[in-house]
Amino acid sequence: MDLKELRLQMDSIDQELVRLFAQRMDTAVQIAEYKRKNQLPVMDVIREREKLQSIYTMTPDAYKEYAVSLYSLLFELSRSNQHRVLGGRTAIAQQIEEAIAHTPPLFPVEATVACQGVEGAYSQIACDKLFRMPNLLYFSSFDAVFSAVEKGLCRYGLIPLENSTAGSVNMVYDLMRKHNFRIVRSVRIKIDHNLLAKPGTELSQIREIYSHEQAISQCTEFLRSMPNVKVTCCENTAMAAQMVAESDRKDVAALSSRSCIELYGLKCLASSVQDQGNNFTRFICISKDLEIYPGANCTSLMMIVPHRPGSLYKVLSRFYALGINLNKLESRPIPERNFEFMFYFDLDTSVYSPQFIQLMGELPELSEEFSYLGSYSEVI
Could you list the active site residues? Predict the structure, then answer.
């Protein structure tokens, strides 16, 4: 056969495959309807295992693994279709609809906001980008910011989640599982680290530099050029500037934002010393209650899936089946379980999409723990 004949043969096979695929999906819905009427569980693990074993046995050796992969995906697509046809409105879907209905059309211009650090911190800069008139309350740790929001002391909190060069803030992901909160907006700000010292101090005099560990990791090339200088971690870049301003020493400096120059009466010894010029940090704005403002096109979730082969694949296959793009997947170890993980997802999808609502109804059954963290838009 020539190529044209082979392609015609392939087209004929595909036509039959599509017909059988649609027939199989319709039959799966009928099975689900029967199970619902007779109060039987939709998911039958034993039947699925037996079915995959049967497929494996009847498939030629060269294609056995491919066939198992194909049918595993078919099972997920069938369940997704069953939810679409029979699912109805889930509790999460109702929660999302109510939040959309009761959230004001405009994001507030003023609010009490919790930030970690002191005046001049990058969290404060992010806050000023989101709110025109914020009432800022500063706390010593990220844990305290989460707690302030959770207890109702502050309506919102600003938390750094990830940096474009240094990666995720792992401590924050661990705290997210501990606290009850919702994400209502995110914001990206450009990070510009500067070496600040007291007036009259020269670069050659510096013997110790203070800063946050993330800032230090973002300025490795600059710090490498100062091999005889001690580098000391502290809670926050603005706190580092405050420590320099309050110190009796003349040989200390801080890696901080330019706003700290005027705030703490310092001078800049070296500007923009970060390794990458394109250095951004993403902050999330959290609240106690679910608020979904117009234009929400990003959703964040946390899940713990069963600790067995294929569990994460089943989750990812639902995203693929519904055409939902995954912007971020982060895993963090669960301290009380050996080699088991919590997964964090950022989804690129409109909150108004019917595929999104369908997905929210499907994911809880695939997980041991499921947390819908919120749907929001990002300020750039």
Answer: 281, 283
